[in-house]
Structure formats: C-alpha cells, structure tokens
Write a structure and sequence with these properties.
Layout (H helix, E strand, L loop, with lengths): L2 H24 L2 H18 L7 H23 L13 E2 L6 H7 L5 H7 L4 H12 L4 H8 L3 H18 L7 H17 L2 H7 E10 L9 E4 L1 H10 L7 E6 L2 E8 L2 E11 L2 E8 L2 H6 L9
Length: 295
C-alpha cells in the first residue's frame, strides 16, 4: 500500500469526527463537507510522514480551514448574526440515522449552535476544540496564533457565553415530544390559550428565511408574541411531519408538497423555551429529507 493510499484510509476512518468538528465550527452541513474536503486536499499535499497522532493532526487541519471560513464569513457580513439559524440535522422521529450520531454527539442542539454563531471565530474554535473534542490548548494556540494561556482565555470567555445562554432541555425525549405535539395541535386549532399553556413566558423564537424569504426572518420574545406568530401560520401547521431536529423533537412544514420550514424546539421543565425555524429555501434544498418520502 502506497503512502497516499494509507493516508486516504486513515482520513476516511477519521472523517466522521472531522465532519463533526466542522459542523460545530460552521453550523452548516454543506460548508462542513467543503471544509473536510479542503482538509483532505491539504493533508494529501503535505503528506503524513512523521505524524504520530493522525487524528489530532487531521483535526488541526480541518480546524484551520474552518477558522478561515468563519473569518471570511464575518468579513462579508452576509446576514445578521441574530437572524442566522444553523443548519439542522433532521432525522426520523423514532431515532437518529447512524451517520448523524457522530454529528450529534455531546448534545449539539440547535440552541447551542445558535449561541456559537454569536462568538468570535477564535473563541468558537477554542471552545469547540477544547470543550467538545478535548484538544489541548498547546495544540489550539498555533491555530489561533496566540499563546496557550491566551487560547485558554478564549475558551473561557466562550464557555461563559454558552453556559449563560444555552438552556438544558428536559432529559425525557417522550415528554419533550408530548409538549411539541401539544404546541402543533394548538396551532392547528388556532387555540391561543393552548399555545400559551406550553410556552415558557420568556420563550424565544428565531426564524431564518434567508435571502429567499427575508420577511420571515425575525426574533420574537415572550409567549404572547410567539403564540400570535404561530396563529399567523396556523394554516401551514396542518401540513407538518414530526421529526427529530438535532436529536430533539421538531417538525417539517410542507407547502404545496415541498418542505417549507424545519422547526426545532428546546423543552425545559415541560415548557418550550426556544424555537428555531429554518425557512431559507436555498438551504432547505440542501438538507437530506429523503427519508420522509419513505414513511
């Protein structure tokens, strides 16, 4: 076996982890795949002669690629940060696809990804690599061009933001599903009081319509505002399919037979505390929802 074949084999063995790193770094499934492909091109050109920790080396390469992509995205200011809902990982309601398990390890819910979107690129990299993938700060430091101590401070700042803004969902998935189902039922019935009953008083709704549906993009706070918005789209609620969104109960909304939106929910203490809706037509087309046609 030649060196390039050996490297390709090792790369494929590490691909699920590398894609998981890229997804947490970028919040985009298509960009994560692009980053992993770019990492392979860089690794194959560099060669692996003398590399002792293959997984760590490849993780470092994909992290550098992702950092460049984040910095480029930030400089372009393509969309307001508070309007961007990351790409959801959508799975069957009875469990996740094996391919999704690596992506969703460590409870990478949409709520966490939304908070990560607000971090500076270097903060996000330091937090994701250290807190999620246990990469030492001495290995993170060269990527962000800082000392290990400064890299530790970046991760610490990010950690405070994440812990202060990310709700911990109820552990019982069935109970979460009951709450989300009650929300959908109340929305279909136009039942304002029923909606209020399952919404936390301080619930947050984030909707991202992208460039295709800019009027859909919004951030709403409070049960009354969110319930009112749900009633506005009560007609669409009649055409929904239950799914798992990043491992938590959610739904896909259909319009004229095509996916119109994907909704993810965070349920805490029996109430919906966060809702994240992706209705960007361009990004929806890139999601793998083919399993819905098989049900």
């Amino acid at each position: 076996m030649g060196e390039n074949e050996w490297l390709a084999e090792r790369f494929e063995a590490n691909r699920p982890r590398l894609r998981a790193v890229a997804y947490r770094m970028l919040g985009s499934l298509s960009e994560a795949d692009d980053a992993v492909q770019d990492a392979w091109l860089r690794a194959s050109r560099a060669g692996a002669s003398g590399v002792e920790n293959m997984g760590g080396w490849l993780t470092t390469i994909v992290a550098r690629v992702c950092l460049n992509m984040l910095q480029s995205r930030k400089s372009k200011r393509e969309e307001p940060l508070d309007m961007r809902v990351p790409d959801p990982v959508v799975s069957r309601p009875d469990g996740t696809d094996p391919e999704h398990e690596a992506l969703l390890a460590d409870s990478v819910g949409l709520a966490l990804l939304v908070v990560l979107e607000t971090l500076q690129p270097a903060e996000r990299l330091a937090f994701v690599l250290h807190d999620v993938f246990a990469v030492p700060f001495k290995d993170i430091a060269p990527i962000v061009e800082r000392s290990p101590t400064a890299a530790r401070q970046l991760a610490s700042r990010a950690r405070r933001r994440v812990q202060g803004a990310t709700p911990v969902p109820d552990p019982d998935l069935n109970r979460q599903r009951e709450v989300v189902d009650a929300f959908a039922k109340a929305a279909r019935a136009g039942d304002f009081e029923g909606l209020l009953a399952v919404l936390d008083p301080n619930v947050i709704l984030r909707a991202d319509g992208g460039k295709g549906l800019p009027r859909v993009s919004t951030v709403l706070h409070g049960a009354a505002a969110v319930a009112g918005q749900a009633l506005t789209y009560s007609g669409a609620a009649r055409f929904t399919r239950p799914v798992l969104v990043n491992g938590a109960p959610g739904f896909v909304v259909f319009a004229r037979g095509e996916p119109f939106a994907v909704g993810g929910f965070t349920v805490k203490d029996g109430k919906i505390v966060e809702m994240d809706i992706l209705a960007d037509p361009e990004r929806l087309r890139k999601l793998d929802l083919s399993f819905l046609d098989q049900e």
